[in-house]
Write a structure and sequence with these properties.
By secondary structure, the protein is an alpha/beta fold. 30% of the residues lie in helices and 23% in strands. The chain is built from 4 helices and 5 strands, in the order E-E-E-H-E-H-E-H-H. Strand 2 and strand 3 form a beta hairpin. Helix 1 packs parallel to helix 2.
């Protein structure tokens, strides 16, 4: 996949450019939940997300479907660019099929370069810092999900 954003995380209007990523949310019992996000580059609004106890392709598919629903359903994302890293879930054939069905154009940064998706990385870091405050993990799954 080409890098269509080239670290330019701006947009002239809503629904043109999105970024997404997966982050782990550590639990006190040693397990993790995984959060997949879809963020509009124009408004910086979180328009789609999914939370699960796995990092299978369905996690990121659910986040993109949620973004489509937020924007009006169907092909509401048609023509928009979605930028991610080269994680296996984003490079899977199933995810490519979903993007094609929704009319979403895939974009990916260079392998091993977090700056190529810094908007999504920054969101993840801010979420953990602001929600966890001085803690390093959530006490249990229910608290984390809330």
């Amino acid at each position: 996949m080409p890098d269509l954003l080239k670290r330019d995380f701006t947009a002239q209007a809503p629904n043109q450019r999105y970024v997404g990523d997966i982050t782990y949310l550590p639990l006190a019992d040693g397990q993790n939940l995984y959060l997949a996000t879809v963020i509009d580059c124009y408004s910086r609004r979180l328009v789609g997300w999914s939370l699960a106890d796995h990092m299978r392709t369905s996690l990121v598919e659910d986040a993109l479907k949620a973004a489509a629903a937020t924007r009006g359903g169907g092909r509401a994302l048609a023509g928009a660019i979605f930028h991610s890293d080269h994680g296996s879930v984003y490079t899977s054939k199933d995810y490519a099929r979903l993007c094609a069905r929704l009319g979403v154009i895939q974009s990916m940064g260079a392998v091993g370069t977090s700056a190529d998706n810094s908007l999504a990385e920054s969101f993840n870091a801010t979420l953990k810092r602001e929600v966890l405050q001085d803690e390093t993990l959530w006490p249990d799954e229910a608290t984390c999900r809330r």
